[in-house]
Each structure stands twice: as structure tokens, then as C-alpha cells.
Design brief:
The structure is a single chain. It contains twelve helices and no strands. Helix content is 68%, strand content 0%. It has 266 residues and is mainly α. The two termini are 29 Å apart. It has a domain at 14-19 and 32-138 and 194-265.
Amino acid sequence: MIRTAEEIINSPLEKYLLDMTTLFSQTVFPLDTLPAIQYILDLTLLKMTGNLEQKLDTIKLHIAVYDPDVRFNTLRKGSRISSNIETISLIYSTLEQQVLLLNPNYKKIPMLGNDKVLKKVQKIIKEILSRTEMNRYLKGVDIYNFSAYLYPQKHLKKINLLLSKKASYPNFEKDKEKLTEIREHIQNLKYDLDLGKIYTNTIRYRNNIAHNIDCSYKDYPSIKDMAEEDFKYESFCFRFLILIYIDNVFMSLFYEYTNLKTKMIY
């Protein structure tokens, strides 16, 4: 059955994560090996990126039906791949402009700066991936370290508690400098989460596994890989995070758009 544009756009991307964890937990033959886990993770990533591209293309065409200027520009620039971060930003700003035409009082939110959606997606990732033992095989950072990275305030609270109890803390003078250094790092940790860079790295990885012949799994990253500044993002946790984040940002904005159009019609 052919799905409508609204059904494609409003279908959440996390369904693929749910399918993945269900497969892992219910399969009768053994999947508890690194190559098998890697295969499932790669396959899930390919499905998610493909679905997101389809969704973004559908949004472009849906808006083009109602706006001749968008239709003209879409046809002229139709060769642009919707997985490119610049193209995604252009689609987002185009949809946002449509919302502003319908509601001039709408408050613009940067595509990669929606903290409300980011927190929602963090919970989605953690809840879904924590359901199985698959998180033990996630490279870069596991699900628990991933959670700690995204929720630094919990760790900050612990350090502040130690620093406030200096009288009863036996090694306080010895560890004070280190604790202070860690606290400063955690306070600035949120600025380390470069969503644009995570997305670019995710699409680069997707292209490698989709198109390269030499895409077999390596048990361990090389020392050169680990020395790279972006290595902290080389995790399926972050890959799934950015894809579902972008998906939710667009679903939220599209809901605002269709809701406003419905009110104008009726």
C-alpha cells in the first residue's frame, strides 16, 4: 500500500531501533558475536539514513505543491542529496519560512539548537538501547558512558558535594586541584557536543559501509583513529542520536506547519 506524504513524514525513525533490539532479544540463533552485532547495527543505520532522506525529499515536494517559488527552486536544485547537512539546513529553513508565513509570531529555533528535542531523543536512545545486552558492543562509548556524557549535571553535583565536604574528605588537599579541573571540564562539556560534526561523521560512515568494498569490521580502532579529536563521536549511540534528533526536529516543525494550514482552511 502506498503511504501518503503525511504518513511518511510522521513515521518516527526510532522504530528501526525498536526493530533492532527486538531482533536481538528474540532471535533463537546466537547473535552474541561482534561481526553479527556489527552487521545488525550497520543495517539499522542504513535503514535509518535511507528513511530520513526519503522523509526530507517528501517534505520538499509537499511544500512545493503549495508554493510556486519553492517548487521552482526544488526543480532547479533537485540533484542536491538530502543527506548533505547544507541541504538539510536549507530544507529546514524553507519549512520554517512557510510556518512564519502562516504565523508571523512563530519563534524560530535553530535546527541544531533545539534543546527540548535533544533531551527527548537522549531519553529515547537510552531507553531503547538499554533493553538488551547489545549496548555492550557499541563502539566508542557504551550506553552508560553515553548517558553520563549527555547528563553531566549528575556528575557535577557529585563533585560539588565532595568539594563542599572538604573537612570530612581525607584526601581533599591532594585531589582538590584535579576535582576543580574536572568540574570546569564538565561545566563546559555541553559545548563539546557538535551535532553538525556528528551528523557529517555519521553520513561519512554510512557511505563507507554502503559503497566501499573494504567495509569489513575491525575488532579494534587503530591508535591513529583513537588520537583523532572526533573519535569520541565514533559510536552508534551518537549516530542514532543525531539521526533521530533531526527526524524529531523536522516532525515537530512539520506538525506546526500542517496544524497552521488546517486552521487556515477551516
